[in-house]
Structures are given as structure tokens and as C-alpha cells.
Design a protein that fits this description.
The structure holds two protein chains of two kinds.
Chain A lengths: L1 H12 L3 E7 L2 E7 L5 H8 L18 E4 L2 E4 L12 E3 L12 H8 L9 H14 L5 H7 L11 H20 L1
Parallel strand pairs in A: 1-5
Antiparallel strand pairs in A: 1-2, 3-4, 3-5
Helix pairs in contact in A: 3-6
Chain B lengths: L6 E4 L3 H9 L5 E3 L5 H6 L7 E4 L9 E3 L5 E4 L4 H5 L2 H6 L1 H7 L5 H6 L2 H7 L6 H7 L3 E5 L4 E5 L4 E3 L2 E2 L6 E7 L7 E8 L6 E12 L2 E10 L6 E2 L1 H5 L8 H8 L16 H22 L3
Parallel strand pairs in B: 1-3, 2-3
Antiparallel strand pairs in B: 4-5, 5-10, 6-7, 6-10, 8-9, 11-12, 12-13, 13-14
Helix pairs in contact in B: 10-11
The chains are: A alpha+beta, B alpha+beta.
Chain lengths: 175, 288
């Protein structure tokens, strides 16, 4: 009897629950198993594969998205924890066909090689610049501590974040 | 990585949490999840039901206490602590320690109460709370109690919290007048976890050390007061010689642990260095 009881418990635990959230400005309602991570909801349920899964253990930062404006590692947030929240992924940064200033800066400064870490880098940088519009290079390096890049050696990434921040300040001044 | 299946429920207020903890059906509390969710994904832990306490207003935020000092709600995140003006004014040492915990993303989700409950042997918050004479406040459906951080941590991932109890807040008392605090750590570069870390609070009166709290993290089975160091400081002249001599007792009475990054002998020597540095910095910041 015991294994059967155990299986029944397992099935009960797999009952999906509804989660409502706003992703890149669009209201979404998704049914997910409780153990589903936010990264999986974004990638598999919503098809937003710009959010990359690297280490899947809260270390590499490739899965970084903005959750209510703050950078989080979406591999370590339950989809159900995002109930009622607003999520911004890399797909939500560009306005129409115009790249976000950080995206332009990463391209112009050669802030990427393979590009796998780039969406997470850009969203972590967006969190930093929202709180500190004119960060020092040291501040940028500290703020990107949770984002690993195996290609660039980081210097061009720091250059890109500084250039993106400057462009965002200019955009703000022009408006 | 996919955790073993579990149920999930968002708590409907503090009473709901206390009632759920009081039943025989086990619930596991989920706050920021920055320790628990990786453990579940790595299948180092398996749970029946996660009760999400991340959105309970009474457990969140920083306030000044009538008795002096501040209280930090259990589900206040690291970055909320870093950005809080009360913490900056009342507990600069705590702020310095929290700035080095995890990374930005982890600090945006991880909570002080979650880390205290998890009690990782290398958690930086533990020696900080020990040096600051912090108190952990607990509630159950039928009881309230508050006890010193010194004695709360029993070993790796083990505290005196009962299974029906919830950590509600962490209280940081006002330091003695003129006291200086400091934090020094040597970390394993890939993980960021401390090989050894020291928090120190010193007060000086008439050239002699009148108050000394020194705590060590990373080295032992859990964060621990370095009481041999404290005993070698109090009532002695606040001179570099006193500090250096006291630091040599850093691991006295502590079972120093070794792992693949640092064996016990190396960790012991790092512990002495971080304690000496912390004492020197705390002395420089203390008045008198």
C-alpha cells in the first residue's frame, strides 16, 4: 500500500495553480505546477527565450530579469511568487524597432562575444542605472558581481554599461 | 534542475502562518527563497508544502524601538536593509556586512530572517548579529519569546527555533556610546562565501577597552563569539599590542572546520588575521 499512497500524494502536489502577472507590459495568466520557476514560465510557457538558463543554481546570472523593477535570478524565483508582479525581460527593453540605449551600447562597445550572458548583464545593469544613473566604473563592477561572462574578460561590458548610462542620461536630458 | 514536487500556498497574514505552523501537517516557510529554492533544486531538501510568507506586512521593514536600537522585520530583504536610513544611522556595521552578502540579485530577494533561520555555517550575518548583541524574536500561535543571537545558533543549519515558531524580527540594540564596529572577511573567490570572517565592536574608556564583542564566521560549525579574544581585550589598554595579542586567540575553543578550499590550519591562520584587522579597524573607529 505504501508506494501507492506516496504516488497519490505526489499527484496532489502536482496540481497546477494559476498565476497572474504582467510580462513586458502585457497581462498574462498562466497555469503552472508549484515547482515551476519563473525562468521556465518565461521560456517554456510564454516563449520568451531571451532569458537564458545557464547554471540553474543562482550563480551565473544569465536568467536575470526585472521583477517589480529589481534584478532577480529567475531560476530561483517560483513562478507563483511572481503573482501580481511586473516582469521585464530582454524582449521588453526595445521600443518598437529602436534598441534600448544599453543594448546599443553593448553592440557598440563589443560588450559581448557569444552573447549568452548578455540579456542578464543588460537587465542587471538596468537595475543599477535605475538607482544610480551615473555609476563609477567600480560601482558597475560591483553591481555585476552576480553575472558571469566567460568570453569578454568584463572590461568591454563595464565600458558598455558606462556608455549606456551616459546615453540614458542624455536621453533624459533631451526629453 | 527540477525540484521534487511540492504544494505551494501564499500565507494569508501572520495568524495564518502561526496556525499552519501549529498543526501536525508540516509546512516549510518560504521567504526570499535564495537558500531554500537552490536546496530544493539540487534535491538536498524535499518539502511537502511551501508556505510563502514573503508578503506579510507585519514581518517587513525597519523600525526604531522605544527601548533604543532598531528592529528589522524577518522578511526585509538585504537590499532593503542596505537602502534603509535607520540602518545607516543606527547600525553601520550591519550595513557593511550586508553589502557583501551574495550579489545584487540575491540581495534583492534574500531576507535577513530567512538567512537566520537557515543558519549556514558560513553566513556572514551570523557573526555580525553576535557582535552587535542582536536578539531574535520568535512567535508561535501560543507563545512569544526573544533571545540573544548568542545561543540561537546551535550548529550547521541548526537553531533553537521550534518547528511551531516563526522568526518575526531581529532586534539590534544601541551600541555603547562611542563604540566602533568593523567587519573583515577573506572569501573563496568563486562562491563568495567567507573562509573566515570577523565582526568586532569595541568601546574605549580612559584608554582602556570597556566593551568588546568579537565574533567569527566561516571557521567553525556555525558563527560563534570569540570569547577568548573578548576576554583578552576587556579592561586592558587599547594599544596595538593588546589587539594583536588578543587576535592570536581567535579560534580558541572553536572547532575549526576544513574543506577543499581551506583546511583547518589555513582557516585558523586566516581567522587570526581577519580578527586582528577587525579589531584594528574597530579601535580606529571607537572614540577615546
Amino acid at each position: 500500500m505504501r508506494p501507492v499512497i506516496r504516488r497519490i500524494h505526489r499527484e496532489v502536489r502536482r496540481v497546477p495553480q494559476e498565476v497572474s502577472l504582467v510580462v513586458n507590459g502585457v497581462d498574462r495568466r498562466v497555469s503552472v505546477e508549484p515547482r515551476r520557476m519563473l525562468a521556465e514560465l518565461l521560456r517554456d510557457d510564454l516563449g520568451l527565450t531571451g532569458t537564458n538558463l545557464g547554471c540553474d543554481t543562482t550563480q551565473c546570472g544569465a536568467c536575470t530579469v526585472l521583477l517589480d523593477g529589481r534584478a532577480v535570478k529567475s531560476c530561483s524565483v517560483l513562478a507563483l511568487q511572481a503573482e501580481g508582479s511586473s516582469v521585464t525581460t530582454i524582449e521588453g527593453l526595445a521600443e518598437g524597432g529602436t534598441l534600448h540605449p544599453l543594448q546599443t551600447a553593448f553592440a557598440e562597445c563589443h560588450g559581448l562575444q557569444c552573447g549568452f550572458c548578455t540579456p542578464g548583464m543588460i537587465l542587471a545593469a538596468a537595475d543599477l542605472i535605475a538607482r544610480d544613473p551615473d555609476p563609477a566604473p567600480e560601482t558597475v563592477r560591483h553591481a555585476l558581481e552576480g553575472n558571469l561572462c566567460r568570453c569578454t574578460g568584463y572590461h568591454t561590458i563595464v565600458d558598455a554599461v558606462l556608455a549606456g548610462a551616459a546615453a540614458m542620461r542624455d536621453d533624459g536630458a533631451a526629453r | 534542475m527540477i525540484p521534487a514536487a511540492f504544494d505551494y500556498r501564499r500565507a494569508d497574514g501572520l495568524d495564518d502562518v502561526l496556525a499552519a505552523l501549529a498543526t501536525d501537517a508540516p509546512v516549510t516557510l518560504l521567504a526570499g527563497g535564495q537558500s531554500l529554492l537552490p536546496l530544493l533544486k539540487l534535491r538536498l531538501a524535499e518539502v511537502g508544502t511551501l508556505l510563502d510568507i514573503g508578503r506579510i506586512p507585519e514581518l517587513h521593514g525597519v523600525r526604531v524601538r522605544d527601548e533604543g536600537g532598531i528592529a528589522i522585520g524577518a522578511t526585509t530583504t538585504w537590499n532593503e536593509i542596505l537602502e534603509d536610513p535607520l540602518v545607516a544611522a543606527h547600525a553601520p556595521l550591519l550595513r557593511q556586512v550586508v553589502a557583501g552578502i551574495g550579489d545584487v540579485q540575491v540581495r534583492n530577494r534574500g531576507t535577513i530572517g530567512g538567512s537566520v533561520a537557515h543558519a549556514d555555517p558560513a553566513a556572514d550575518i551570523v557573526p555580525a548579529l553576535l557582535a552587535l548583541d542582536a536578539t531574535i524574536a520568535l512567535r508561535s500561535a501560543t507563545s512569544r519569546r526573544a533571545g540573544p543571537a548568542d545561543g540561537f545558533f546551535r550548529g550547521p543549519f541548526e537553531t533553537v527555533r521550534r518547528s511551531d515558531e516563526l522568526i518575526v524580527e531581529i532586534r539590534i540594540p544601541a551600541l555603547p556610546a562611542g563604540a566602533g564596529g568593523a567587519w573583515e572577511a577573506v572569501s573563496q573567490p568563486a562562491s563568495g562565501w567567507s573562509i573566515a570572517a570577523a565582526a568586532a565592536v569595541l568601546a574605549v574608556s580612559d584608554g582602556r577597552i570597556s566593551h568588546a564583542r568579537v565574533a567569527l564566521g566561516g571557521a567553525g560549525e556555525c558563527g560563534v563569539r570569540a570569547k577568548a579574544v573578548e576576554a583578552a581585550l576587556v579592561d586592558r589598554p587599547a594599544t596595538p599590542e593588546t589587539l594583536t595579542a588578543a587576535a592570536s586567540a581567535a579560534t580558541e575553543g572553536i572547532a575549526v572546520q576544513g574543506d577543499l578550499h581551506a583546511d583547518a590550519a589555513y582557516r585558523t591562520s586566516v581567522a587570526r588575521v581577519v580578527v586582528r584587522r577587525a579589531l584594528e579597524a574597530a579601535r580606529a573607529r571607537a572614540a577615546g
